From TrEMBL:
Name under which the protein is recorded: Methyltransferase domain-containing protein
Keyword annotations from UniProtKB, A to Z: Methyltransferase, Transferase
Domain Methyltransferase: 89-173
One GO BP annotation of this record: methylation
The UniProt record lists the keyword Transmembrane: no
23S rRNA (guanine(745)-N(1))-methyltransferase N-terminal domain segment(s): 2-45
InterPro entries: Methyltransf_25, Methyltransf_Superfamily, RlmA_N, rRNA_m1G-MeTrfase_A_prd, SAM-dependent_MTases_sf
Domain of life of the source: Bacteria
Keyword Transferase annotated: yes
MF GO annotations: methyltransferase activity
Organism: Anaeromassilibacillus senegalensis
CDD domains: AdoMet_MTases
């Protein structure tokens, strides 16, 4: 299902590489992923999450505090895939693979699951742990996936490029987006910022898709382990935005109580 980032032809997986009909070759890393990010799609030398951020994300997600979100994503995927006997599922912006891996487990052997992310560190970690899933390093602005190939695309807090998503989802297929609720991590923001803010609530239509439903999953969580607090901070956009004072406030915090909330938006790809 992966395509050549140079010519757009479908890639064939060989023993040690992916190849295309025009002779372009992409070696498989020892962990099993393929690098399909051309230089003109990179905004820095090593875009996306670095090694430390990937480790922090994995450590936090393994606490199980975000498992209710993963469970709801899996439930929706099973619902909308229905009786499809051999669905193709793509995780667009898979990170270190937590949601991808649990989704593949929920769908079972009937599904072919793929994932890509712009972070090489994240994809390496995902491929190393979830060997049964095909992973690639790639960009949301040029998804390395065949036209109309996916029965379902999921996207959890990753960049959204509507025309690319419309290209890879087959007519009648579905798109599930996870976005933060208005007060998601508000307790963390109260520690980091003098003037904490709520996330905007948006009703968004995307060309080529019909909106079907929104479902929300919310919890109140308490964290007392300092490292877990720092891991949560490191996997959020606030990590890049917060000044020295906010970071120091978090390091001095002994107890974090916060609301967490994901909204799942489900869309169907139009038939025409």
């Amino acid at each position: 299902m992966f395509i050549c980032p140079v010519c757009g032809n479908l890639l064939q997986k060989e023993e040690k590489a992916y190849t295309c009909p025009k002779g372009h070759n992409y070696d498989l890393a020892k962990e099993g992923y393929v690098y399909l990010l051309p230089p003109n799609k990179k905004h820095s030398k090593d875009p996306g999450d670095n090694k430390q951020m990937v480790a922090a994300r994995r450590a936090f997600l393994e606490t199980g505090l975000y498992q209710p979100f993963s469970d709801e994503l899996n439930r929706l995927a099973l619902e909308y895939l229905g009786e499809n006997r051999s669905p193709v599922v793509l995780d667009a912006g898979c990170g270190e693979g937590y949601y991808t891996g649990r989704l593949a487990l929920a769908l079972g052997e009937r599904a072919r699951v793929f994932g890509f992310d712009i972070s090489k560190c994240a994809v390496r970690a995902a491929a190393k742990r979830y060997r049964e899933i095909a992973f690639a390093v790639g960009s949301s602005f040029g998804i390395p996936f065949a036209d109309a190939a996916a029965d379902l695309v999921v996207n959890v807090f990753a960049p959204i490029v509507p025309e690319e998503l419309a290209r890879v989802v087959k007519p009648g297929g579905h798109l599930i987006l996870a976005v933060p609720g208005e007060r998601h991590l508000y307790g963390l923001k109260e520690i980091l910022y003098e003037h904490p803010y709520e996330n905007p609530y948006k009703e968004t239509e995307y060309p080529g898709f019909t909106f079907l439903q929104r479902t929300a999953v919310a919890r109140e969580i308490t964290i007392t382990d300092p490292q877990t607090m720092l891991n949560l901070f490191a996997m959020t956009p606030y990590y890049w935005k917060t000044g020295v004072e906010g970071g120091e406030n978090l390091r001095q915090t002994q107890r974090l109580e916060t609301h967490i909330e994901f909204h799942f938006l489900v869309y169907q790809r139009n038939l025409t």
